[in-house]
TrEMBL record:
Known EC number: 2.8.1.4
Organism: Listeria newyorkensis
SMART domains: THUMP
Predominant subcellular localization, coarse grouping: cytoplasm
Enzyme class: transferase
Domain THUMP: 60-165
UniProt-recorded name of the protein: Probable tRNA sulfurtransferase
Family, similarity comment: Belongs to the ThiI family.
Catalysis: reaction(s): [ThiI sulfur-carrier protein]-S-sulfanyl-L-cysteine + a uridine in tRNA + 2 reduced [2Fe-2S]-[ferredoxin] + ATP + H(+) = [ThiI sulfur-carrier protein]-L-cysteine + a 4-thiouridine in tRNA + 2 oxidized [2Fe-2S]-[ferredoxin] + AMP + diphosphate; [ThiS sulfur-carrier protein]-C-terminal Gly-Gly-AMP + S-sulfanyl-L-cysteinyl-[cysteine desulfurase] + AH2 = [ThiS sulfur-carrier protein]-C-terminal-Gly-aminoethanethioate + L-cysteinyl-[cysteine desulfurase] + A + AMP + 2 H(+)
InterPro entries: Rossmann-like_a/b/a_fold (IPR014729), ThiI_AANH (IPR020536), ThiI_fer (IPR054173), ThiI_N (IPR049961), THUMP_dom (IPR004114), THUMP_ThiI (IPR049962), tRNA_STrfase (IPR003720), tRNA_sulfurtransferase_ThiI (IPR050102)
Alphabetical list of Gene3D superfamilies matching this protein: 3.30.2130.30, HUPs (3.40.50.620)
Amino acid sequence: MKYDRIVVRYGELSTKGRNRKQFIKKLAHNVKRAIADFPEVKVFGERDRMYLLLNGADDQVILERLRPIFGIQSFSPAVRVPQDLEEMKQAGLSLVRAMHQAGGSFKVNARRADRSFELDTNGINHELGGFILQNIDDLHVDVKNPDVKLLVDVRSEGIFLSCQTIQGAGGLPVSSSGRAMLMLSGGIDSPVAGYLAMKRGVEVEAVHFHSPPYTSERAKQKAVDLAGKLAQYSGQVQMHVVPFTAIQEMIKKQIPEGFTMTVTRRMMLRVTDELRRRREGLAIVNGESLGQVASQTLESMLAINAVTTTPIIRPVVSMDKNEIIEIAQAIDTYDISVQPFEDCCTIFTPPSPKTRPKLDKVERYESFIDFEALVQEAVDATETFSVEVADAKKVQDEFSDLF
């Protein structure tokens, strides 16, 4: 069956009041960006539905592009016919016939938004269902658990018919809740945190700390590949790669060993916060999970957070590792995250880091070093570029020599 359009349902956006128009506008923008290489497809965002007119484009490719877009509850490939009973019957028959398997069942589920149509919903169900039964052998009706459900939506602009309802990603359109900086280490947790923030409408820009020669180009590329995986939910992700060697060497040289991890995290947060200010972001997102490592105890979080008043969003803070891994596998970041390239969070980790660092001691040790100048130098030297959707084959090839 050749479909001529796709009907998109908003889900959570339907609960929005006066702001609904802005959310729909954001969603339409994200959809257009996801299918930018199909200029013939036209997107129309209306109050209760969105329509994509395919104009000959490959409907299966467009359907796959819609799956990861936040703000979509469900979507259906559909055909539209005029408000004509005979044309409705023929279109419904073609759709069910294309989906029918021997011994299968079906039902007709009609909605009539346009009350002027000649049949009510029960009349549509009876008339269309009876016509299909007469013309397809080995088919029966099952109103509770049908193999094929024919959806019929009668509107003033025509009758829309579909046999498929595909679940969308849910959530809110990316960027509808503002911009935040994601501290993307290259591990398992931070990409998951970024994904969950994006699902709530946050546009994330990734900040990765790179410390050559202690960290390799492979470690940097690993973070870029993770950003590419997140880009499938927004079309692209801005990436900021921060040169962090000078700061880490100074910390290792001047700060007592037990406090080096706390000070390192504080400097990362200061750099990220300055990038956020320059990029007009509203918050910082990280992958901290309470109690998972020494820097993620409540005492450590208190000492680290003291460098900023910017809101810190921690989407995975209450999850255990298995829960985080399950999401990482679902969004296809896990296999990249576990590649054995150390990032700067692990290369200088002391054998016995303080799990309950005292803020006054941390600030005293820092006071002997001009960290402000080092932070500004790192921010000024940050490399910023756009990361597009990751090519799965390319990422796989990059790591093939490891196995």
